[in-house]
Amino acid sequence: MDSLGAIRSWPANWRITTATMTTTEGIKKVPQVLTVAGSDSGAGAGIQADLKVCAARGVYCASVITAVTAQNTRGVQSVHLLPPHFVSEQLKSVLSDFEFDVVKTGMLPSPEIVEVLLQNLSDFPVRALVVDPVMVSTSGHVLAGSSILSIFKERLLPIADIITPNVKEASALLGGVRIETVEEMRSAAKLLHQMGPRFVLVKGGDLPDSSDSVDVYFDGKEFHELRSPRITTRNTHGTGCTLASCIAAELAKGSSMLSAVKVAKRFVDNALDYSKDIVIGSGKQGPFDHFFGLKKDPQSSRYSTFNPDDLFLYAVTDSRMNKKWNRSTVDAVKAAIEGGATIIQLREKEAETREFLEEAKACVDICRSSGVCLLINDRIDIALACDADGVHVGQSDMPVDLVRSLLGPDKIIGVSCKTPEQAHQAWKDGADYIGSGGVYPTNTKSNNRTIGLDGLKEVCKASKLPVVAIGGIKISNAEAVMRIDEPNLKGVAIVSALFDQECVLTQANKLHKTLKESKKGI
Ligand SMILES: Cc1ncc(COP(=O)(O)OP(=O)(O)O)c(N)n1
Ligand SMILES: Cc1ncsc1CCOP(=O)(O)O
Ligand SMILES: [Mg+2]
């Protein structure tokens, strides 16, 4: 426990299964975030961005304002700091009344304001603290001077659960070190972690001349590089605030830190992609649309938080096989994830509904705490009831456009496709990925036409969606599948080569290694 008590007691698998949790008395507890930041008159960043992203993510957000800025798309014209005692008044007012799960800090423009924040957090502990060390606006205006660095490093960073500096802020916190490559971002993340935060995310959005947008996440032991194609747009104002507040919102809903960071990264990417051609303001840097996910046109439903790279090693469970090897589905899922599975699907064709639901709820918790998506095969009702990340449906299951209308834009929908026509229809209906096969003959699924590598290649060429191959895939042929040289083939889905085995962990490790090596040559 640190000096702020509950902040360090963030329960690893504490979560709310929906945006609101109904307590025993029938009272609805809503996840709550407090943002402590500056006001942006242009409403693209600051507390305005924080409020919007929390609303978009289904979380209540209150705000304590530390400064008021006069700014627009051309830059920051003027800044007015609020007196520390008034910032303290605001903090006391909300911290004494609301049950915040997470506090997120943005612009903290003076040591005195940091001081009153620390005092109030000590008086009113919360579960998690997200610190976005805002120092310089993207238009170059200094929002927190060098005098702030020492109190940040000595007092605020040590109690933060995660800090989210961009490369300029990371460099400033580290005394001006050069950070121009991903390797230097990793070194910086490690050094910043030594200052005390439990997790560090160094954002590489403004890394010079990189084709990808790369963020480096460090948990004290492992690095995760979160890559996505760089989106060319003027509408990037507020991306840093939005990322940090989205992390706070996901934590408040009970996600693990890695899962929250992944969702937040995809939320920002999707928002930028949706907003890339919007024109608001006449300056060089415009705002983006935080509410893209609520738009009715079918295109917006494509902006799910799905990351196609998650299709890399897709574990599809089978309870008959797990029963044969005397292991529970929960243990099978844990072992698959530990071995490197990047996405899980519960495929239980014979399970009774109640049994399937209990199994699914247990697996959702495991997957969410590991930052791995969990999909349910066929059963939309089960997916909704356990708040799974999505579903996989076949051609004879519920139509995809109806599934999309039931699950909403944020859930993942995969569709089985054997032909280019089916692939095109899946895209039109709002699916996120395609499962294509059986590539090779398999005993796992009866009456299943084998399409071979040629059939898989044909579907990949026609598909606007990412594709995962399935059917008879195992260590000995996985490389041949990955080498069909189709860029939207993102991975392989496997049942028996993972679960009709004595040791799931060993097989998953071997498959993951084989797939990584096969990618090297592509
Ligand atoms: C990733 C992936 N692809 C295909 C399937 C097949 O689904 P299943 O329900 O077994 O059969 P259809 O409904 O597609 O006929 C899958 N489960 N996962
Ligand atoms: C579900 C499914 N869809 C097409 S083939 C198949 C079964 C894949 O199982 P295995 O990986 O054991 O061949
Ligand atoms: Mg099906």
From TrEMBL:
Residue span, Thiamine phosphate synthase/TenI domain = 313-498
Pfam entry (one): Phos_pyr_kin
Q: Which cofactor does it need?
A: Mg(2+)
Q: Which Gene3D superfamilies match?
A: 3.40.1190.20, Aldolase class I (3.20.20.70)
The catalytic activity, as recorded, is: 2-[(2R,5Z)-2-carboxy-4-methylthiazol-5(2H)-ylidene]ethyl phosphate + 4-amino-2-methyl-5-(diphosphooxymethyl)pyrimidine + 2 H(+) = thiamine phosphate + CO2 + diphosphate; 4-amino-5-hydroxymethyl-2-methylpyrimidine + ATP = 4-amino-2-methyl-5-(phosphooxymethyl)pyrimidine + ADP + H(+); 2-(2-carboxy-4-methylthiazol-5-yl)ethyl phosphate + 4-amino-2-methyl-5-(diphosphooxymethyl)pyrimidine + 2 H(+) = thiamine phosphate + CO2 + diphosphate; 4-methyl-5-(2-phosphooxyethyl)-thiazole + 4-amino-2-methyl-5-(diphosphooxymethyl)pyrimidine + H(+) = thiamine phosphate + diphosphate
Pathway annotation: Cofactor biosynthesis; thiamine diphosphate biosynthesis; thiamine phosphate from 4-amino-2-methyl-5-diphosphomethylpyrimidine and 4-methyl-5-(2-phosphoethyl)-thiazole: step 1/1; Cofactor biosynthesis; thiamine diphosphate biosynthesis; 4-amino-2-methyl-5-diphosphomethylpyrimidine from 5-amino-1-(5-phospho-D-ribosyl)imidazole: step 2/3
Q: Which GO terms describe its molecular function?
A: ATP binding; hydroxymethylpyrimidine kinase activity; metal ion binding; thiamine-phosphate diphosphorylase activity
Q: Which GO terms describe its biological process?
A: thiamine biosynthetic process
- Main localization of the protein described in the UniProt heading: plastid
Q: Which UniProt keywords apply?
A: ATP-binding, Chloroplast, Kinase, Magnesium, Metal-binding, Multifunctional enzyme, Nucleotide-binding, Plastid, Thiamine biosynthesis, Transferase, Transit peptide
Gene Ontology cellular component terms for the protein in this record: chloroplast
Q: Localized where?
A: Plastid, Chloroplast
Boundaries of each Pyridoxamine kinase/Phosphomethylpyrimidine kinase domain copy? Answer: 40-283
Q: What does this protein do?
A: Essential for thiamine biosynthesis. Bifunctional enzyme that catalyzes the phosphorylation of hydroxymethylpyrimidine phosphate (HMP-P) to HMP-PP and condenses 4-methyl-5-(beta-hydroxyethyl)thiazole monophosphate (THZ-P) and 2-methyl-4-amino-5-hydroxymethyl pyrimidine pyrophosphate (HMP-PP) to form thiamine monophosphate (TMP).
The family note in this entry says: Belongs to the thiamine-phosphate synthase family.
Q: Which PANTHER family match?
A: HYDROXYMETHYLPYRIMIDINE_PHOSPHOMETHYLPYRIMIDINE KINASE THI20-RELATED, PHOSPHOMETHYLPYRIMIDINE KINASE
The protein here is known as: Thiamine biosynthetic bifunctional enzyme TH1
